[in-house]
Design brief:
The protein is mainly α and 281 residues long. The chain has helices at residues 2-7, 26-31, 33-48, 57-76, 86-113, 115-120, 127-131, 135-153, 165-189, 193-204, 222-225, 229-242, 249-273, 277-280. Helix 5 runs antiparallel to helix 8 (135-153). Mean pLDDT is 87; it is low at 4-8.
């Protein structure tokens, strides 16, 4: 009888007010990993269900953007490409940028899109923006295969620097999550945030070294330019995968610091505002 009772024992979660603003329980997120994976799978399914090109959409957008940049920046403007064929040069930058921009857009709208879930069920609220990190990762992997095919076509071989590639993708994740936490929390109260984010993304692609190398930025502006975390991500990604001429050490250091500040401040702001989500949303 006691064995049967023990088998039926369920987990009980006690919800208590947080004593500190920075109290962020990673163990609690791990306990709700099934919900995280379910929501991520739901988003992936919705993205590709009843679509004509199915998963091809993962690389259609960066490839088309690469063609436009190649024609106007590579051929007409003659922008240098660090000794790498320009199509490969710009596509290698578009992949981490697409991951960041897609994740940011999804995270910014994540709380509003899951309003019913927020107001009815308890779970750690940061789980919703964190879920936004996973579906774009699938798109990234599909598009990365296309990039490898282009590298093979242009006979661009990766160097030993490729071992640093996961570190730069981790930096992209930190940047996307930090910005996503900020905009997700703000979007609950200010609904015009959903219109601001696409504008920032369109502006950001040109203030990040996607279509050009960062060495074209005047020296007096490079310290300020490096405060853009995606500048370090993109230059580091290209250096690790393509073995470009310059090692962007100082740029990566400043961008990494900016990304960590963005993440920590995003967590603080999210924790500060999450107690009002269910009432405001």
């Amino acid at each position: 009888m006691m064995d049967e009772i023990q088998q039926r024992r369920v987990q009980i979660t006690v919800v208590e007010p947080r004593r500190r603003l920075a109290d962020f329980n990673l163990r609690e997120l791990w306990d709700y990993r099934d919900l995280l994976l379910f929501l991520a799978w739901r988003d992936i399914s919705i993205r590709y269900i009843q679509t004509l090109l199915c998963s091809s959409w993962a690389f259609v957008q960066p490839v088309l953007t690469m063609l436009v940049f190649t024609i106007f920046f590579g051929n007409m403007a003659g922008v240098p490409s660090e000794g790498v064929p320009y199509p490969v040069f710009t596509l290698a930058a578009l992949l981490p940028w697409q991951y960041f921009s897609t994740t940011l857009g999804n995270a910014a709208n994540s709380l509003v899109n899951n309003a019913n879930l927020l107001s009815k069920v308890y779970f750690p609220r940061p789980l919703i923006p964190v879920t936004s990190l996973l579906p774009p990762a699938v798109d990234f992997l599909i598009a990365f295969v296309v990039l490898l095919g282009m590298m093979f076509f242009y006979r661009v071989a990766p160097t030993w620097n490729v071992i640093w590639l996961p570190a730069f993708m981790a930096l992209a994740v930190v940047t996307a999550l930090g910005a996503g936490l900020w905009f997700a929390a703000m979007n609950v109260k200010y609904r015009d945030v959903r219109y601001i984010v696409p504008v920032l993304v369109q502006f950001g692609i040109f203030v990040s070294p996607v279509a050009y190398p960062s060495r074209l930025v005047p020296a007096k502006w490079r310290a300020l330019y490096a405060l853009n975390p995606m500048a370090g991500v993109i230059e580091g990604f290209r250096w690790a995968l393509l073995g470009t001429d310059s090692v962007p050490g100082s740029l990566i250091a400043v961008s990494s610091g900016a990304a960590l500040i963005l993440l920590v401040s995003g967590l603080f702001y999210f924790r500060h505002t999450e107690k009002t989500f269910a009432d405001v949303i």
